Amino acid sequence: MKRHSLGLLAIMATFAIAGCHSFKKENIQPPTPLPDDFKPTVQVEKLWSNSVGEGAGDSGARLRPTVVDGVLYADSTDGKLVAMDAVSGKKLWSKSSKTHGWFGWGDKKRPDAFYAGGPAVSGDLLAVGTLDGHVYGINAKDGSPRWDATLNSEVLASPLINGGLVLVRTQDGRIYGLDAGTGERRWVYDQGSVPLLSLRGNGALLAANGVVFFGTDDGKLVALREDNGEKLWEQKLSTGEGRTDIERLNDADNGILLDGTTLYGSAYHGNLVAIDGPSGRPLWAHQFSTTDGLAINGNAIFAVNDESQVWAFDKNSGSDIWKNDALKYRWVTGPAVQGNYVVVGDLEGYVHWLQTGDGALAATKRLSRKAIRAQPLVVGDIVYVEDVEGRIGAYRLSAR
């Protein structure tokens, strides 16, 4: 029942809560205006911008590029897949699935691969999932096809390539271990059931020391054996209490951080939690509701709550360090850390830099007039930001 009705429920959830973005974009709470007299305290240089197809469009996916060995890879839900020089933005190769051939169906007017979640790259293998439940293995050097795998549901999170496996999560709650060479299914973990109503989208998987970690749609953090998918332990991050279905939403699939042997996870209507990775034992919990990923730098964890306020917490105790209200109701992305600054994008296409020490707004640049929903990506001294229509910008901090 759940899996057959998943598409309809996803559409209903998209209109009802839209991954906590669309209803907010209707300005039930107006975005906090940016100050007219703002003076930046750090200089930001825009290196380049380029476009990848139509981006995520109205799919609800949070497309995010990846950078490996100086090459940026990105995709779009209308079937575009590109590789660019990460410093200059120059396209190295570009492929479109709008032609007959290797995907097995489709024609020039109908894309036959609705890429979603962003690509993963390791060595010369690129893996990418689709809205119609496929995962494709592609040659990262030139975009040529290698293999394809058909799964049970749409793939909204980037796959994870680790050793000889491509690890994939699908919207119906399953985790797959696929052979990296052939795409053959090695194992599948099925959590049994997922809530009838949940936030659209999934956070990325995390693999370390032979264990796969992920958050679930029903408020848990789960650890699996990487070799066979057997569950090792789980911990509850949210209880899912409330008077209405919306209040009882408790998704914890925003993505997991690992620092040393400590895991950090969070949940909507739940907690920010630190957990001992080997044992699954909770270390501390701080009540905090979020739909976005986390970032960590030094002794601080950075997060954005469900009112779009940016917070910093002490990673050892969970106590709060600072909170920034300047971007409240601007529905900013999950944070990234670039040097001494926290970077987020917002619903009007702005990119913001906040000081890691006290949260003060330090700089603002506008990528486009379209919403930025995917967490920025920091590689070296460059941050990459993508909006919902596939515009990618690269920024570097400059000395004043």
Automatic annotation (TrEMBL):
Q: Spell out the Gene3D superfamilies in the cross-references.
A: YVTN repeat-like/Quinoprotein amine dehydrogenase
SMART domains noted in UniProt: PQQ (SM00564)
The protein, known as: Outer membrane protein assembly factor BamB
Domain of life from the UniProt record: Bacteria
Keyword Lipoprotein appears in the UniProt entry = yes
Q: What family classification does the UniProt entry report for this protein?
A: Belongs to the BamB family.
* UniProt KW keywords: Cell outer membrane, Lipoprotein, Membrane, Palmitate, Signal
Q: Per UniProt, what is the membrane topology?
A: Lipid-anchor
**Any Pfam family:** PQQ_2
Q: Does the keyword Signal apply?
A: yes
What this protein is reported to do is described as: Part of the outer membrane protein assembly complex, which is involved in assembly and insertion of beta-barrel proteins into the outer membrane.
User: Localized where?
Assistant: Cell outer membrane
> Which InterPro entries is this protein grouped with?
BamB, PQQ_b-propeller_rpt, PQQ_rpt_dom, Quinoprotein_ADH-like_sf, WD40/YVTN_repeat-like_dom_sf
Q: Which HAMAP family match?
A: OM_assembly_BamB
Position of the signal peptide = 1-18
Grouped into one coarse class, the protein's main location is: membrane
Question: Its quaternary structure?
Answer: Part of the Bam complex.
Q: Which residues form the Pyrrolo-quinoline quinone repeat domain?
A: 47-95, 116-324
